[in-house]
Amino acid sequence: MIIRRDFVNRLLEDRKDNLRVVSGIGTSTWDLMSTGDEKNNFGFIGAMGQALPFALGLSISQSDKKILLITGDGDTLMSLGSLATIANHPVCNLTVIVLDNESYVETGSQPTATAGKTNLELIAKGSGIENTYTVFERTDDYKVLKTIYEEDGPSLVVVKCKAESTPLIFPHSFDGVTAINRFKDTM
Amino acid sequence: MEKFSKDWRNDIYDVFKDIGISLVSHIPDAGHTPLIDLCEKDNNIDVVTLTTEEEGVGLSCGAWAGGKKSALLMQSSGVGNCINALALPNICRIPFLTIVSMRGEWGEFIPWQVPMGLGTPKVLEAMDVKIFRVDYKDEVGETVNAAANFAFNTRKSAAVLLSQKMIGAKQFKNG
Q1: Which residues lie below 8 Å from residue B120, measured CB to CB, with a gap of 6+?
Q2: Which of A86, A173, A180 should be substituted to probe chain B, the one whose Cβ sees the most B Cβ atoms within 10 Å?
Q3: Number of domains chain A contains
Q4: Mean pLDDT of B75-81
Q5: Are the Cβ atoms of A46 and B88 closer than 8 angstroms?
Q6: ipTM score of the complex?
Q7: Domain that includes residue A107, residue range
């Protein structure tokens, strides 16, 4: 079973300068912030369901950068339509990583639809995103790195991970203006 | 005004070009169709068809973070779908521009359009979106221009409401 925070840290350990990372609401943002205070990151702390379309807009406007969205199953389930939008307006520089722990851990670990019959990889594939796969073991890290930096996107990787609450690691500022200005200045 | 003398949809397109809009997203509405067509024919405007209107809010914000100006076209019923999404441009002070074709207010034939038509200005005001309403065709260009400048110069959200009286109510015949 993959430990999400370790996974995100390994993935971003030797990150390249052309990578911009966006994280979805909740634990994904705390995971991303645990990798360090980095200007090339932007973390959602609200507006659930908006990280996917935000990442698409960013990928369209910054076609020479690699865009990585790290988000959870809960956030993705709220914007399933965006998978169809991404597939039909394909951007080759976008990778979406869904840290799928099958639960809303932040609110008390209620099960999400993926704990039941729902399979996000199949939904992404059915939406028309061609490069999709699911990883279960940490030995697959290299494969995900290759997808982010080398393969043509849009890609969606479901990372099945352990449902456990992790320490909250906040961004350098909760102020949205400060956060977006700092991120925008890196473009 | 001489500058805004053509079809009002052309006037919106001209403003888009003037202020450098290069990304337009929409859930189509008949009122917007000629404008969508103009944008699709333009190689310098990227047109994204959404699955639900709130996607257009996040899309616009992400595009702006990457340096692109954009606009969301939708019908008034779509405004309700955007409520929580509008927190994003609000809290980050990201310029957000939407052009809304109104339904349910003047000569409306479909009663199901009325609730969200009536709710549209209230919802926008509740989320701190500045409303620019247009009732006359010859004021469309200057109003969109004012709304766009408000959004992009002050980093706030702006919505142009195109009144149903101006657009013309859709009529259906049974059978």
Answers
A1: B76, B79, B80, B100, B102, B161
A2: A180
A3: 1
A4: 96
A5: yes
A6: 0.96
A7: 4-184
